[in-house]
C-alpha cells in the first residue's frame, strides 16, 4: 500500500499552468469531472478545508429561485468560526450545470452514491487527487490539502496581506502562515540557488 502524503508534504499549485493541468486531468481522469472540478474550484477560490466543501448543502449554494448564489456563509467544522464563501461567475455557471445534470435529489451538494443521505467522503477526494497526480512531475506535492494552500499562496502573491491571510486560516503567527503556503521554502530555495563558496 502506498504511503499517503501527510498534510505537511502537500504543496500549493504556484502557477496558472499547474492549476490548468489539474483541471485538465480532472476532466480526463475522473468519473465525475463536473463534480470534481467544482470541488477543486470552490477549494482554490476560498481556501476552506475539504471537509467543509463536502458539508455544503444545495440550499447553501442556490437561492429560493434555484439560481446559484454569489456567496454563502458556513461555519467551519474545525474552528466553529463563520466564513463567507464567494462563488465567482465561473463557479456559479459550474453550479448551475452540475445541479442540472447530477440526477440526485439529495440535500447534500456532493452526495454519496452509496448513501445519498451523506456527502462523499474526504478520503474519496484525497484518492482522486492521488490518481490525477500520478506520473505528473509538476504535481508532485498535490493532495486535497493543496486546494487550501493554493488559495493562500495566490492570495498572498496578489495582496501581500499576510495579516488577513493569517486571520482567514486562523493561524497564531505570520511565520506559520508563510510556511504553510510555501513562501518561506520558496524564498529559501531562491536564496540558495545562487549561493556558492
Overview in brief:
This protein has 2 domains: 11-149, Intergrase catalytic core (hpI Integrase, Chain A), CATH 1.10.443; 158-193, no CATH class. Helices cover 52% and strands 5% of the residues. It is built from 10 helices and 2 strands.
Keywords:
mainly alpha; hpI Integrase, Chain A; two-stranded antiparallel ribbon; 5% strand; disordered N terminus
Largest sheet at a glance? 2 strands, antiparallel
The Rg value, from CA coordinates, equals 17 Å
Classify the beta-strand content into a percent band: 5-15%
**CATH architecture assignment name of the largest domain:** Orthogonal Bundle
Look at the structure and give the CATH class of the largest domain.
Answer: Mainly Alpha
Low-confidence stretches: 1-5
- What is the H-and-E element order? HHHHEEHHHHHH
Structural class: mainly alpha
The percent range for helix content is 40-55%
CATH superfamily of the largest domain: Intergrase catalytic core
| Mean pLDDT across residues | 91
Termini gap: 43 Å
- For this structure, the CATH topology of the largest domain is hpI Integrase, Chain A
- Number of β-strand runs: 2
Strand arrangement in the largest pleated sheet: 1-2
Note the overall shape. Answer: globular
Total helices: the number is 10
User: What is the domain tally?
Assistant: 2
Amino acid at each position: 500500500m502506498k504511503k499517503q502524503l501527510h498534510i505537511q508534504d502537500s504543496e500549493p499549485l504556484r502557477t496558472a499552468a499547474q492549476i490548468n493541468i489539474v483541471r485538465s486531468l480532472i476532466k480526463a481522469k475522473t468519473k465525475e469531472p463536473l463534480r470534481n472540478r467544482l470541488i477543486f474550484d470552490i477549494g482554490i477560490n476560498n481556501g476552506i478545508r475539504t471537509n467543509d466543501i463536502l458539508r455544503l448543502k444545495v440550499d447553501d449554494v442556490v437561492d429560493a429561485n434555484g439560481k446559484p448564489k454569489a456567496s454563502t456563509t458556513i461555519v467551519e467544522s474545525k474552528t466553529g468560526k463563520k466564513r463567507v464563501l464567494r462563488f465567482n461567475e465561473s463557479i456559479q455557471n459550474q453550479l448551475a450545470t452540475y445541479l442540472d445534470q447530477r440526477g440526485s435529489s439529495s440535500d447534500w451538494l456532493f452526495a454519496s452514491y452509496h448513501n445519498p443521505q451523506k456527502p462523499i467522503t474526504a478520503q474519496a477526494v484525497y484518492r482522486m487527487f492521488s490518481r490525477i497526480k500520478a506520473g505528473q512531475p509538476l504535481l508532485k506535492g498535490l493532495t486535497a490539502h493543496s486546494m487550501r494552500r493554493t488559495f493562500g499562496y495566490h492570495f498572498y502573491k496578489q495582496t501581500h496581506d499576510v495579516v488577513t491571510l493569517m486571520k482567514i486560516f486562523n493561524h497564531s503567527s505570520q511565520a506559520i502562515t508563510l510556511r504553510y503556503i510555501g513562501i518561506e521554502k520558496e524564498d529559501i530555495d531562491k536564496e540558495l540557488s545562487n549561493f556558492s563558496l
